[in-house]
Design a protein that fits this description.
Metallo-beta-lactamase, Chain A, seven-stranded mixed sheet, globular
Length: about 475
């Protein structure tokens, strides 16, 4: 058996891990889009032949894990794509949205390349590729074992609590009559998530591929979350009369924010001001969340029974229309604007940031992970100037960060996630989906927990097991 790492290797985005069994079965774990600046070549070339892949197993719907599936299909893949039911529903909206963004972004990128005399880039995929991709999805629930081919590879999904339908992938691979257990963590959520269930224990594995996004970080204490959000809302919108701009992933993060604001409204604490969810994708994702409330934790289920809807309250406005979105920029009164994407790399949020970044009374609130080369990360680092749509802007708006909204486990929570394993039985542990410096620190912590043979694979690197 061999594992090759074609994405999320010493970086966070573009997850693609290829397992080749002794019998030659090629299993691709996720097929994610690389996000951020200067990732065009990585997205154009998968690093392997799409036609050679036998099966794809998808951990969850985030674009950095699912966003190149249509590219895979465009290049000839026609096999099944296994995932949980909510993941399929979310991909149905997210991949179409991604195709639209690819086309718009490519027009701007190729215009710049033409001016420089560089060759133009090929479109990664279009809506037709997405529709062909969606036809290949096969849904399987948590804890339902299924075989890939002639009793060679058995698969099971378990809940990781990262986003709706997110799963760790557990493979039982038979080689020469001996079963080998391989686990891919996907992305691991946080214990006591406000909407989803906590990550669950998983069967003993000999090989683990584990995310390490926050391998060197500990999140701020959870009890401060609502109070922290309320303080920022009051300071920005009431005291200074500015706008609060929140880049947020359309799936899970936006719903967490709405739920927190809904609770503050019910408690009589939320100031009377307009809250805009300016993202067609987030609106569709919220509907899917409502549809799959059987994946929610007991606390929010009880809240919904009393409140009726955790994602709706007075003065909350869902905006789909482009003209309505533009009209928000002309609004003179203070308000809260929540819009995708979470890294501020695409979508309407870039326009809202551009239109408010020079206003010292406004605040840009970052509520999740941002890849180092993204606009969100530049703002997090406190850069005095940033580029938006190719133009340089001084950062005069305030920038705040709230890590308590992160859907990624920190290093203490990742270690807790791995506590269900006997380290002496784990023969290899690969760290992926993290920046290299963070991974080096996390590797040392895992070794202190008794894990041996902890590897940090480089892009394209392969390992025989």
């Amino acid at each position: 058996m061999k594992i090759n790492f074609y994405g999320a290797a010493r970086r966070v985005t573009g997850t693609k891990h290829l397992i080749t069994t002794e019998q030659g079965t090629k299993i691709l774990l996720d097929c994610g889009l690389f996000q951020g600046i200067n990732t065009q070549d990585l997205n154009q070339n998968l690093g392997f032949s799409a036609k050679d892949i036998d099966v794809v197993i998808l951990s969850h719907a985030h674009i950095d894990h699912a966003g190149l599936l249509p590219r895979l299909v465009r290049q000839g893949y026609r096999g099944p794509i296994y995932c949980t039911p909510p993941t399929a529903d979310l991909c149905n909206i997210m991949l179409l949205d991604s195709a639209f963004i690819q086309q718009k972004d490519l027009e701007r990128i190729n215009e710049r390349r033409r001016r420089k005399g560089d060759a133009v880039l090929e479109l990664l995929y279009d809506e037709n590729d997405v529709r062909q991709t969606l036809e290949l999805f096969v849904t399987v629930g948590y804890h339902e074992d299924f075989w890939l081919n002639r009793d060679e590879v058995k698969v099971r999904f378990t809940d990781t609590g990262h986003i709706l339908g997110s799963a760790a992938v557990h493979l039982t691979i038979k080689e020469q009559g001996v079963e080998k257990q391989v686990t891919f963590s996907g992305d691991v959520g946080r214990p006591n998530d406000k909407i989803l269930r906590s990550p669950e224990p998983f069967p003993q594995a000999q090989v683990i591929i584990c995310e390490s996004t926050y391998g060197n970080r500990v999140h701020e204490p959870e009890p401060d979350m609502k109070a922290h959000l309320l303080r920022i809302v009051r300071d920005t919108c009431v005291t200074r009369g500015g706008k609060l701009i929140i880049p947020a992933f359309a799936v899970d993060r936006t719903q967490e924010l709405i739920y927190a604001l809904d609770q503050l409204e019910n408690e009589g604490l939320l100031p009377r001001l307009k809250v805009f969810i300016d993202s067609p994708l987030a609106i569709k994702a919220t509907s899917i969340m409502r549809k799959h409330d059987e994946y929610f934790n007991p606390d929010i289920v009880e809240y919904i029974e009393k409140d009726g809807d955790a994602f709706n309250f007075p003065n909350l406005h869902y905006i789909s229309d482009v003209e309505q979105s533009k009209a928000i920029n002309n609004l003179k009164e203070p308000c809260v604007i929540i819009s995708a994407s979470g890294m501020a790399e695409a979508g309407r949020i870039k326009h809202h940031i551009k239109n408010n970044i020079l206003d010292p009374d406004s605040t840009i609130l970052l509520v999740g992970y941002c890849s180092p080369d993204s606009l969100g990360a530049a703002l997090k680092r406190g850069q005095p100037e940033v580029k938006i749509f190719g133009e340089t802007y001084q950062v005069r708006a305030r920038v705040e960060v709230m890590d308590s909204f992160s859907a990624h486990a920190d290093y203490t929570e990742l270690i807790q996630f791995l506590k269900c394993q006997d380290p002496t039985q784990v023969k290899a542990l690969f760290l992926v989906h993290g920046e290299y410096e963070n991974q080096v620190e996390f590797k040392a912590r895992l070794e202190a927990e008794g894990f041996r043979n902890v590897e940090i694979p480089a892009q394209g690197e392969g390992f025989f097991l």
